[in-house]
Design brief:
Layout: H1 45-63, H2 74-97, H3 102-131, H4 134-148, H5 152-161, H6 176-199, H7 206-235, H8 237-242, H9 248-259, H10 269-289, H11 302-314, H12 330-334, H13 337-364, H14 369-378, H15 380-396, H16 398-401, H17 404-433, H18 472-475, E1 486-487, E2 498-500, E3 507-512, H19 514-517, H20 520-529, E4 533-539, E5 550-551, E6 556-557, H21 559-574, E7 580-584, H22 593-608, E8 614-617, H23 627-632, E9 643-644, H24 645-648, H25 653-659, E10 666-669, H26 672-675, E11 682-683, E12 686-687, E13 690-691, H27 701-706, H28 708-717, E14 741-746, E15 761-763, E16 784-785, E17 792-794, E18 800-802, E19 805-807, E20 810-813, E21 815-818, E22 830-838, E23 850-858, E24 873-878, E25 885-891, E26 906-907, E27 911-912, E28 921-928, E29 935-940, E30 943-949, H29 955-962, E31 966-974, H30 977-981, E32 996-1006
């Protein structure tokens, strides 16, 4: 049982008034051999005292008192008490009256439990809005809603089982999970017993029949629940502890205690004494002996459950007895004034103590057990006020208790009030937090490849002011965009997680836990630049060094980690050798440095046998606190969220080992010198306006993307990556360095609904060029091109949209081309044209006739728009009819036949791209005029898939096609020869409105003096 899971408890029995001991045994029902109840409804002062034991155990656990770390078993005590009292109450009613009045039952429950809980919930919602920072406040108000609606256990189950939610602070209402379990139990248990009683209402011996019917229902449920508890204890600690189904057996244990005919027996008093004291001792032993490492509930929960049953059983009156306490029984001790006083207060004290602790720590910081104990003691004051001011008056009110509906109305009101307040405060907080969607990585500022600053800066120019990026609410969800490839704790194998140029024979492997996974985005960019693939083998919470650990989500030894690690290493041995293996892992799974290094060497041995470069990225600082939550409360002064340098950035034993030369073939790099500058005792949470952490340990994806340039430099310097311009396989696109000069870059930034920049682009309108030398644009397409922002517009998020529309049977669309037409490869050099495009997300009959394209034409065409195809056309990307394929083509020569086989052109084979409609992909063409090796190359996501060498045609045709400037075109056509040849034409099923989206367009040139890409 993890110390982060707060146990709850049950209140006292509402059907009795604990003012004085009395006998209220009802007369026997005619025909019943045993009277109306197996255990007479006399008030049990020992049970009231037993509640005191349970609540004090829970309070000691929450206060962190040394030696009492098993106090969470108090919840088990309460569950057994509840099962005993509630079942006895309902069975007595069924035996006496022949039925159970569910309305009366729930009315009593509502007025007894819900008003006090509502007072606490309203207080927490209001005080929490004042004491907590906005990001925690939003979560707290969600907790209020869940607690008020009695589903808190399921909310916290979801959070506790979600590895990616780790690092968030505990809720002030975490303890409401047990109250939710109880309420859910009531809603299920009372109708079940009512049905069982109804089935035997006319039995001759009603008492025996009712007990038998209820027992027949209880026993199978208990067994199933206990089996489920054992299973979940092995598979999911949070489900086992917090979920109602795995706790039903404990209520059932109390229920069986109430059903068995103990009142017909006369047990030897010494045996009763032994039973009671043994039970009390077992409860005490659990409080002392159990801790967060105890697999719980599981078999361990049997001890406090049976021990509680033993204490209750010891004082059940037998045949002819009015009182079974005895002078020396444990019940006599529990029935004393002090335990009973605490027991009466147990419900409201439990409600108040945990919010007092959590909200105090939210304001004051982490507290020690003496301070927590003092705060727990102080919680007695509001608990007393609630008991005397709310609980007792409503419970004893004749006005409220006179009618069932009044009690139910009180309960409904007690639910509605906190729900309404939470919705009001929560909505206001969410508005304050703003957009929660992660930021678009393409809109992030450029990172510095070296130097003391995180962001790239011009010399002497200070960093511009602006908001924190990502915003705290965005940071919370700013994960690497790797889908399911960071496999969850229960999984033992990684899926086929290949990204980028997936068909490339070259790939980078990213291997490790979630601290390796945070480098996904920068490594994907590095791989894509080189035309390589990225393979991700990452498992949450699983150390890459071969050491055994305990997993808090599963609540046991992390066997799945060992299986996954072995499979991942075996997978790398069987696959083709990668170009590079990048490894990383949290280095805090153990404080034993020798054990850690031994585990690392056992993992690195099979990796080193691969014979490829291995780079260890040193673990980044671990703040140990919820960074986004802190920053949400200090947006104007994020320096207040800086954290201790020494505690967060520990010496890395593996990095030292690598530096010593003891692991040949393994390099070590790190970025911590910029994440935590050596300028004081703390590390920043926000650096150069970039929020660095998404929780208490992991970088935001935004921070990782900004660090990409630095990471690439470090990998290159370590010899793990080929130097710029020397990829060696002909598939490497150029970057802004390495001799390439950028001629054009448009990221399509601007307000939503605005046209693209008129500085860079102009619209083609109508159905042909001026003078109409080729109607229907020469291809037979049927749309009319417009300059309307209905057809061509910016989306406000950094992308251009070209949208084909149909109105009144007429199609319109957009076609833009660059104003410049002088993009050309220098003699002996090269020209590269690239765009990142998401194709229209439509397929099947709805896509019939769609023809999106990114292409170029020779500049001479603008002199009268004649001379095609001799002036050259390079179709960088085309796709038709919504197929999951793209292709590239070169047109040149003459209209029919010739070296370019017109009118079809020299086209590639269709390239499969299932994700080209749903995400952005990179399309590029290079015109390489390197002497003796001239050719045009086509790239898809950095991978060369088509080439047309100059030797394919005579020199005159080649020069007329490429030895001049080019202009670029983006358009979505509808209909025409190419879609028709593919077997589809626009018709009534074709859906308008599906946009081609363009993230950016880049044109670069490399002069002849620079080394060109290698040949492949």
């Amino acid at each position: 049982m993890s110390s982060s899971v707060a146990p709850g408890h049950r209140p006292s029995d509402p059907s009795v008034t604990p003012r004085r001991r009395r006998s209220t045994a009802l007369p026997p029902v005619p025909g019943s051999e045993s009277g109306p109840s197996p255990h007479r409804s006399a008030f049990r002062p020992d049970i009231e005292g037993l509640r005191a034991v349970a609540v004090l155990a829970v309070l000691a656990f929450h206060a962190g008192i040394p030696g009492l770390q098993g106090g969470f078993v108090g919840v088990d005590v309460f569950f057994v008490i509840s099962g005993y009292l509630i079942t006895g109450l309902l069975v007595r009613e069924a035996i006496t009256t022949g039925r159970i009045r569910l309305g009366d039952f729930f009315s009593r429950r509502a007025r007894r439990l819900l008003p006090s809980a509502a007072v606490v919930l309203v207080t927490v919602a209001a005080v929490g809005a004042w004491l907590t920072v906005p990001l925690r406040r939003a979560g707290l108000e969600h907790d209020v809603l869940a607690a008020a609606l009695s589903v808190a256990n399921w909310r916290f189950t979801a959070q506790q089982t979600d590895y990616l939610a780790a690092g968030q602070d505990q809720s002030a209402l975490l303890h409401f999970w047990s109250l939710a379990v109880e309420e859910q139990f009531y809603f299920f248990w009372a109708p079940l017993l009512a049905l069982a009683g109804l089935c035997v209402a006319r039995a001759v011996r009603r008492g025996r029949a009712v007990r038998a019917a209820v027992a027949l229902a209880v026993v199978p449920l208990m067994l199933a629940s206990f089996a489920l508890s054992l299973y979940w204890t092995q598979e999911s600690a949070s489900l086992a502890y917090l979920a109602t189904p795995s706790r039903v057996w404990q209520f059932g244990a109390g229920a069986l205690l109430a059903l068995l005919p103990w009142h017909l027996m006369r047990g030897p008093r010494p045996l009763r004494l032994l039973c009671g004291w043994a039970g009390a001792a077992a409860i005490g032993w659990c409080v002392v002996a159990y801790d967060h490492t105890t697999p719980y509930p599981g078999f361990a929960a049997l001890v406090p459950t049976l021990a509680t049953a033993a204490v209750i059983l010891a004082a059940i009156p037998g045949r002819g007895e009015r009182d079974a306490q005895g002078a020396h029984g444990v019940g006599r001790l529990l029935a004393m004034r002090a335990p009973r006083a605490v027991g009466r207060l147990s419900y409201t004290l439990y409600l108040w103590h945990w919010p007092v602790l959590v909200l105090a720590e939210a304001r004051l910081g982490t507290l020690g057990w003496p301070a927590k104990s003092a705060l727990t003691l102080a919680a007695v004051l509001p608990a007393l006020a609630t008991m005397y001011g709310v609980e007792r008056p409503l419970r004893r009110s004749r006005t409220v208790s006179a009618h069932t509906r009044r009690g139910l109305s009180v309960g409904v009101t007690a639910i509605v009030l906190p729900v309404a307040l939470a919705l009001t405060i929560g909505t206001t907080t969410l508005h304050l937090l703003g957009d929660t969607a992660p930021p678009d990585p393409k809109g992030l500022p450029a990172g510095a490849a070296s130097g003391p600053h995180l962001l790239l800066r011009q010399p002497g120019v200070p960093l511009a002011d602006g908001p924190v990026l990502p915003a705290p609410a965005q940071a919370r969800k700013d994960f690497p965009p790797d889908g399911v490839c960071q496999v969850a704790p229960a999984q033992t194998r990684s899926p086929d997680c290949l990204f980028g140029a997936v068909d490339s024979p070259d790939r980078i492997v990213l291997l490790g836990d979630s601290h390796a996974g945070q480098w996904f985005s920068p490594l994907l960019g590095i791989a894509a630049e080189r035309g390589w693939a990225l393979q991700e083998l990452v498992k949450q919470g699983c150390p890459l060094p071969r050491i055994s650990v305990h997993n808090p989500q599963l609540g046991r030894a992390y066997r799945e980690c060992d299986t996954w690690r072995a499979h991942a290493l075996d997978r790398l041995r069987q696959q083709p050798r990668p170009r590079l293996v990048v490894i990383s892992s949290l280095n805090r799974y153990t404080a034993d440095e020798k054990l850690l290094l031994k585990g690392w060497e056992e993992t690195l041995a099979p990796l080193r046998e691969l014979g490829v470069p291995i780079v260890y990225v040193e673990d980044t600082p671990v703040p140990g606190t919820d960074v986004p939550a802190c920053v949400s409360g200090h947006l104007e002064s994020p320096d207040a969220c800086a954290f201790d340098r020494r505690a967060s950035w520990r010496p890395d034993p593996l990095a030292r080992r690598i530096a010593s030369g003891a692991l040949p073939g393994v390099r070590s790099i790190g970025v911590n010198d910029v994440l935590c500058p050596d300028a004081g005792p703390t590390c920043p949470a926000v650096l150069d306006r970039v929020l660095l952490y998404r929780d208490d340990a992991h970088l935001t994806n935004a921070a990782a993307v900004v660090l990409a340039a630095r990471l690439e430099r470090l990998l290159t310097q370590a010899g793990a990556l080929p130097a710029e311009g020397a990829a060696g396989n002909g598939t490497r696109p150029p970057s802004a360095t390495g001799g390439w000069v950028r001629l054009l870059r448009d990221d399509f930034d601007g307000p939503a609904g605005s046209p693209p920049s008129p500085v860079h682009w102009m619209h083609d309108v109508g159905t042909c060029y001026p003078g109409c030398p080729a109607p229907q644009w020469g291809t037979g397409e049927i749309e009319t091109m417009t300059d309307s922002t209905d057809n061509v517009r910016l989306d406000g998020k950094g992308a251009l949209e070209i949208v084909p529309l149909r109105k009144g049977g007429r199609w319109t669309s957009g076609r833009i081309e660059t104003r410049r037409s002088d993009f050309a490869a220098p003699p002996g050099g090269a020209l590269r044209i690239e765009a990142s495009i998401a194709l229209p997300d439509v397929t099947g009959p709805a896509a019939a006739g769609y023809w999106p394209a990114f292409w170029t034409l020779g500049a001479p065409l603008r002199d009268g728009y004649t001379g095609w195809p001799g002036v050259g056309e390079l179709d960088v990307m085309e796709s038709v009819n919504g197929r999951d394929t793209v292709f590239g083509t070169m047109h040149c020569g003459v209209l029919r036949g010739g070296p370019c086989e017109e009118p079809a052109g020299l086209s590639s084979a269709p390239q499969k791209c299932a994700g080209c409609r749903t995400g952005f992909h990179s399309y590029a063409v290079e015109v390489d005029r390197t002497a003796g090796a001239e050719e045009v190359r086509w790239y898809l996501d950095g991978r060369v898939y088509h080439r047309v060498p100059a030797r394919r045609m005579d020199s005159g045709t080649w020069q007329r096609a490429v030895d001049h400037g080019l202009f670029l075109i983006l358009n979505v056509a509808i209909g025409g020869g190419l879609p028709r040849q593919d077997g589809a034409s626009p018709g009534p099923t074709t859906e308008p409105g599906h946009a081609m989206r363009v993230d950016h367009v880049t044109v670069s040139a490399r002069p002849a003096t620079s080394a060109g890409p290698g040949r492949g």
